[in-house]
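Supplementary Text 2. Reproducibility record for the structural model of the 286-residue chain.

All settings were left at their defaults, and a single model was retained for analysis rather than an ensemble. We include the record here because the model underlies the residue-level annotations in Supplementary Table 4.
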Amino acid sequence: MTGYGKAVAELPNKKVTIEIKSLNSKQFDLFTRLPVIYREKEIALRNTLANRLERGKVDLSMNVEVISKDISSRIDHQIVGQYHREISDMAIELNISQPEEWFSLLLRLPDVMKQETEALGEEEWSTIETAINHAVDEVISFRKQEGKMLTRVLAEKIQLIRSLLAEVEPFESERMEKIKNRIYDGLNNLEGIEYDKNRFEQEMIYYIEKLDVNEEKTRLAHHLDYFSETLSDSRSQGKKLGFIAQEIGREINTLGSKSNQSGMQRLVVQMKDELEQIKEQILNIL
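Retained model, structure tokens:
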């Protein structure tokens, strides 16, 4: 969801520079820095950006550079006259000589210069709105480039987990044999203890079935396929990929709890490491 876009709107008397930055976020959050004249359009801007960018922490700033020599300001005669009277009365009251340069003093006082209120015209806003959309286009283009890179990275990570899952197979028969032998050896070392061999075989089968990971392997393979299928979808699938990653994590955790074998546990740790990296990258996807 990270992206950056910049555009410039050229107007007869000023130049407006628009910058849009986008960072990762679970929802759409917009922060704006707009000149006073454009604040009336903030709600319309929010709706436009929400529809086009969907999610992310979006920062929009507009900077105005005046390029015309025409300054729409005037001197407030009434305030200047009021200042002059008050200063004159104070000078007489305090017996202070009046300053020679009245105008240089008066023009520096507050509220003497009045800026004319500038109205936002439809033509001006149309030009700025076009520039904003150009900046949004750049953000989207930036996101698409990042998306292509993320797609390759995630596909590689899923394939690594798939390869690690295939490596679990050789440990299966070895693991079961070790479990059986360990239990038999433990019973044989108990002197003077007799047990029902038929019942023992039943319990052994039940115990081994509890440690069987074929179902987990099948479900994990299915989730990996589903993740790859969803990843290739052109629509926004970030949240869906996050849910699938959670299911992948559950199956990997169950594999780890049932492994009882150091070789399998190492593979599970590697799967978890790859999955954590996948989860981090999913935060960048819409």
